[in-house]
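Async update (no meeting this week)

Hi team, since we skipped the sync, here's where things stand on the single-chain job. The sequence we agreed to prioritize is pasted below, unchanged from the tracker. I ran it this morning and attached the output directly underneath so nobody has to dig for it. Comments welcome in thread, and please keep replies under the output.
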Amino acid sequence: MSSIPATNELTAPVPSIGRAVAWISVALVSFSVMAVAGREIAPDLDTFSIMLYRSLFGLTLVLSFLLVFRRGVSAVKTRRLPLHLIRNLFHFAGQNLWFYAVALVPLAQVFALELTTPIWVALLAPLLLGERFTALRLGAIILGFIGILIVVRPGFTTLGPGELAAIACVAGFVGTVIGTKKLTGTETTLTIMFWMTLSQTVMALVMLKGVPIIPQAATIPWVLLVGICGLSAHFSIAQAFRYADASIVAPMDFLRLPLIAVVGMIVYGESLDIWVFVGGVIVFLGNYLTIQTARRRG
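Output:
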């Protein structure tokens, strides 16, 4: 007969590099599949419709969880609704811009810019979260800015609507991360997920004036993949952080850049731009400095 694990083992799993690698691998595949699915449905659906169906999918899962486990409305009650709405507005804007960008810009370039999010969070954290500003944090921010310049190379490449959307989506994701950091002190993950999916469903309907585009039969599987992979990617990263330190997980998460570059080359014939990788490496170094800042503060 197997023994029952202690309570602290349930809340704090034993560190396991193998399990962290397994979870981050799921996340990498999920991010890549979601990017491909987003590009495939772009000719059929606008970004607001994509966000509507993605949010409805997530809301259905949350409500199903509440029903199956007999959790009442009290499980998702909140006294911080304004902060939820602000956070979800940032996420809604960032995700819409991200879906717009992946339809127009090489996938590796979008991912390289998206990976700068932790660096810009480090810039705003002293102002909005009361964290201390250090020399390492400043170095991380400078490296992140240099990495962006190398990836987009203004003056050498054309900055079209897709490139601008890829840059702007980072601002939405930064706002999302900071809002999440503020909420996690008092709110459960279930509460955050409920209000995110509910509010973004309403936001999408408002932008669509209550008339969403109905996907064609051939597009429905891609829409389902967006919903499934969007949830599995973030859930898997959260699980990876439960089994390994950020200094281990973050470099593995960064592997999504070369992975999506290969996917873009095989599926869409996109060339492997060496400057995207050079800028990406510099962005990674900036993220690494951010991790070291957090470790020293800890």
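Quick observations from my side:
The first helix runs from residue 7 to 11.
The chain has 13 helices and no strands.
Reply here if anything looks off.
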